Every structure is written in structure tokens, then in C-alpha cells.
Amino acid sequence: MFKLGTRGSKLARTQSQQIADQLSAVGGFDVELVEIRTDGDVLTGPLSQMGGTGVFVTALRAALLDGRIDLAVHSLKDLPTAAAPGLLTAAVPIRADARDALCSRSHRTLSELPSGAKVGTGSPRRAAQLRAARTDLEVVDIRGNVDTRLGRLENDLDAVVLAAAGLGRIDRSAAVSELFSSELMLPAPGQGALAVEVAHGTAASLTAALAAIDDSATRLAVTAERALLARLEAGCSAPVGAFAQLQGSLLRLEACVCAVDGSRVIRQAKSTDGITEVAATLLGIELAEAMLADGAAELIPAELG
Ligand SMILES: NCc1[nH]cc(CCC(=O)O)c1CC(=O)O
User: Which positions fall inside the Porphobilinogen deaminase C-terminal domain (predicted)?
Assistant: First the structure.
């Protein structure tokens, strides 16, 4: 029997239960969910001003280190890029849809929204790309869990932008009016992927089961995306989009850094034919350096760094 630490939101519990079920199936042992409250769940106020990186993960990591839990499931995009002493990512399961989704009243697409329409998001990255695409919309800062945000459509907003993966995991894909192409909106580094973290010294039976649910293509893609984010010295709420994909024998990484007001977007892409963790890391670093040479650092607000 292993204890899996999870945040208490419906999304967190659902994705944690899916991992628990997969591990039980491959490992032949029981996995029990243990709810851990994090600052990201307890505090209110704009997420982008809450101390940035790690608000959702610190408490889970403390529980891993003191042995209250054996493994923790994180949304990879919420995981800071800095290594956590004593811990390691033992599995990156196959990625769900990485795209952002528009959920709107009467199922309008972004181009069909009327001028002045109110679109909710708490993410500077999404806000910047919305403003770059449509200068005539009113972007409204929102937060709360997925159901709370969708509820605003019956209340004061014309549309909200959410991760397709999160909507899918809690069975709310029917709310999606448009899945954004990467030209319109690049997702957060790691979006749609999960990371399963364990402490050093964890049981071999657990790491073997975790290895069985690891997906190497997903791991390569998120390695490139996160290496870019780290080299930009930007946090998970910075206006940085990145998406990597294996295309045949090439790993291709697209990225953007945006002014939060949408007035400027630096967008570049790069590929490598090296299909290894090291090649993926170098791809992210090299693309970040090319974007820095284009002025990317000036667009990342200091408090989101
Ligand atoms: N920032 C919170 C968060 N962390 C992960 C997801 C969605 C699922 C994912 O990307 O894995 C969400 C909600 C959202 O951005 O709509």
C-alpha cells in the first residue's frame, strides 16, 4: 500500500485517482489518496501575485520529504523548474491535449466574439496572447477552480480560457467552443502533462511501476519546454508560451514571450534531430537564448521572474 498525496480540487483528485489506478494495475498494489492543502488552495487573491512559482506544490513536497506520503501527482505546468533537493520526478505519463480552450456563451469562437466582450483568465500568458489577437476585448482577471470559472459564463463574462486537459479530466469538454491553434495561443510549458514525484529512497516496487507509466515522448517535449522557461529565468505565471512535439525524427519547439498588454510578441521555433534528454535540454536553452537576443528579458515582469 502506497500513499499518494493530492490537492483537494476536483481536477487534482481526478488526475491523482487516474494515476493511482494505473499504478495499481501495473504494480499490483493498493494506492490510497491523501489530501494535502497547499497555499494555492488556501489563499485568495490574484494567483500571479501569490509569490509566483510553487504555490501549489510546496506542501506536497514537504509531505514527501517527511514520509507522510510516498508519491505526489502534480500538474507539470505548476512545478517550478528548479530541482527540489531530495526529490525526483519518477514518471511523466503520456500528455493529454496541451492546448488552451475558449469556453464562451453561445459557443462563439474568439473571432466571433463581439467587440468589448469580457474574457476571463488569471494567466498573464493567456491575457497577453488574447490581447495580441484581439485588441478590442476586455480581459478580466479571474481565479478559482475550473467549475467556478465556467460558472462566470452564466454570470458576468462572455468567455473564459482554460486548459483543454483540465476540462477533459473533469468531463467538461462539452463546454469548449474553440481549441486554440498554436499560432493563436501557445500553452504554458508542461501544460496537459503530469509529473509524479517521489523522495529519494523510495521502494523499488513503486519506481518500477512508475517507470511503466512514463512516456518518453512527453518527457522529451516537456524537458525542452521547461529548459526554455528556466533559461528565460521566468516562472510558471510569466507571459511565456512553449510547446514541443516529436515530429518523426525531429523534436520541434515553438515558444513566445509576450508583453502582458499584448503590444509585443516575440515568437520563435527551433528543431533538433537529437532525441535525448540532453538534446531536448539544449534545444530549450538555445531557443531561449535566441529569444533573449531579440529582447525577451524586457517583456518578463520582475515579479513573474
Ligand atoms: N493553473 C492551474 C492549472 N494547473 C493545471 C491545469 C490544467 C491541466 C493541465 O494543464 O495539466 C490548471 C487549470 C487551467 O490552467 O485551466
Answer: 220-292
